[in-house]
Amino acid sequence: MSGSPTNWVTGDGDMVSIGDYVALDLDSDAVGRIVAVCGDATGRPLVQVTEGHRSGKRLAVWPTQMLLRVQR
After folding, report:
1. What is the pLDDT of residues 26-70, one digit of tens each?
2. What is the pLDDT of residue 3?
3. Is residue 31 a contact partner of residue 23, using CB atoms and an 8 Å limit?
4. Which partner from 28, 34, 36, 57 sits 20 to 30 angstroms from 19, CA to CA?
5. In whole angstroms, how far apart are CA 57 and each of 26, 31, 42?
6. Of 28, 19, 22, nearest to 61 (Cα)?
7. Pairing of strands 31-37, 21-24
């Protein structure tokens, strides 16, 4: 996590926040939208997966699992 609890840095150095789409290291084609901050003490982003094998699921991911920002 970097900055405020609603901003994170992706693997390639992009600053992202709630509402941004990111490529994920879950599957070769995984993309998701950051929708919230995880309710636990880690402050991880909660991502709604929109593309890939886990499409439709909400997952708490580590910032390092977000590879880069996807422009939509």
Report:
1. 988 999 999 999 988 899 999 999 999 999 999 999 999 999 999
2. 46
3. yes
4. 28
5. 12, 11, 20
6. 22
7. antiparallel
Helices and strands, counts by H and E, the chain: 0, 7
- Please name which of 58, 30, 33, 60 lies closest in space to residue 45, comparing C-alpha atoms: 60
Q: Which of 13, 10, 2, 3 is nearest to 61 (CA)?
A: 10
- Rounded Cα distance, 12 and 5, in Å: 19
**Both structure tokens of 35:** 């929708």
pTM value surpassing 0.70? yes
- Specify whether the CB–CB gap between 60 and 29 falls below 8 A: no
Q: Report the pLDDT averaged over residues 2-9.
A: 73
Residue 22 has pLDDT above 80, yes or no: yes
